[in-house]
Each structure stands twice: as C-alpha cells, then as structure tokens.
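Annex B. Sample input.
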Amino acid sequence: AHTVEIPAGVPEHALLRTVEILLATAAPRILRIKGLVAPKEQPDRPLVLHAVGRYLSAPVRLERWPEGERRSALVVITD
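Annex B, continued. Sample output.
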C-alpha cells in the first residue's frame, strides 16, 4: 500500500482526471484506491474517492471533515 498526499489547491477535475489516467494505465497492478481530498473548489467539504480495479465510483462530497486530522491523501493498494 502507498499513501499519496495531495497538495492543497488541486482542482477537482484535475484530480479526477489524474486518477482516471492512473487506473487506465496501471489497472492490472492497482487493486484499490481510496481517499479523502480537499479540492480547490470546496476545501471545507472533502471529496471521498474510491476505486476498485479499473472502476472509479462516483465521488461523494461530505458536508464537513470528519473529526481529527484534515489531510488530503489517497491510499493506493497494489499487487
């Protein structure tokens, strides 16, 4: 498993496109991607990302950050 921290201010469309490209090019080795990210457009309403294999689920926007640390990151589980 690898953790990729996402810098502040990343536009949502760029983030989603990057994940789509990663899945398209490395899908056989990627088992799962999950993460909580604060996109540029609404940093106080984090975006939940989840992918299994080649399939990226529709992102879900939370009303607020969960209790605890506010850290934008993706966890990539590989084979």
